[in-house]
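Sequence in, structure out.
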Amino acid sequence: MKDREKAIRSQDIQTGLAALEQAPGAIVNELDNVMLTGMATRLATYIRGTDVFSTEDIPRLKFVASNIGIESYALPMVLNLLQEAEMVQVKNSGGSKIIEVRESVPEFGDLYDRIGQVYSGRDTSEIEDAVLDTFHRVAACPRIASGDTSVEQLGEDIRVPLLDLCDQAALIRQVTAPTGEDLLYAPQYWEENATKLPKVMAAYGSDVVEKIINDVRESPGLPIAGPSSTTDRAQALRELADFGILPSPSVTSLRGTKSFAFIPFKLPEGDPLVMNKVLEKTRAIIACVRYGQHFGTITSLKDPVYFLERFLQVGKTGSHSEIPSQYRILIDAGIARISRDVNHSHRFHLHLVKNVENDVALATAISLLKFGVPVEASMDRELHEYAKMEGEYQAPIGARAKRMYKPTSAALKNLRSTILEMAISEF
């Protein structure tokens, strides 16, 4: 795993575990580095752009931290990690009380790289390594359970309660697919129709499917070739879209209707109607610029990121004859409106409809295209800004585990004994 991926996955794991009402300390205590790294990435996301928390602002900092699962006693450790990553400078009183925090948090790409480097330099436990590695693999693509993941290779007395915990936290889940195989997947990313994936894998091969999914992750809004393209890759991508495994909105313009594939993502905590609308707007924005990039008739859109950044900053595009058709779904979604160019009657300008929802969707689209950051991470930051405008903080992103964790007493007892033996053997 790359350093950046370690930080991103740690954030996901900490988010899932923080949402549980209770969890066995015997497991969670073995995930100190992962939990601390996850807390650090989330706190960095929230405080970026704040500049300085002075003495009178420290209670507000603690409040922000507590909203994302960082208790007051853990905050100094989280800030120390961020200081090690050169993202904050912490000033303490003689009695170690925090009196000032000065932040210099970079944009998302560098943020994860730098925190991941700190994680890589730490001594990690076998359970940490197993959870991080396995979650990373099943988050990237659901896998047939064949005993080759790190968690599967742990002893049964640890593996059973660990997978139980991971299931409750929506991190790693094992189910039986319609084809009969046991499937490991990450509900945070693959809840919808994940069990249909083995059918596509059986038809085209796991390697082909995993390569397609990785390509879509690296290039959100990847164009889906039409039926005339009969390669295994093209057919597999169409089936992944048709089964609903990869969300794929379409855009109709001068070169016909084209569809664009996205990796599925869970939404931040909040009103489902609002959150769904924001995510759909994000996908619509990316699909439109991908259409212009790959299928423009008169001119092609050379740099979608620059185009969207200018659109967000200026609120208006230059004039073009294809705007009414190519950006129709943005107009229908209330993201933009059009006006006719006063000098060229066949050309039109696109205007951004300014509101928080559209700004969040546009900023998230830019973040996805620019950094490949999961939607949760970029939405987390932007929705925090929205919450700040409203005078309160948004609930923690992705509090997905809704039911209390109730481990079987026998499994927990055996786990505690096993971890105690591991601890004794270290001396």
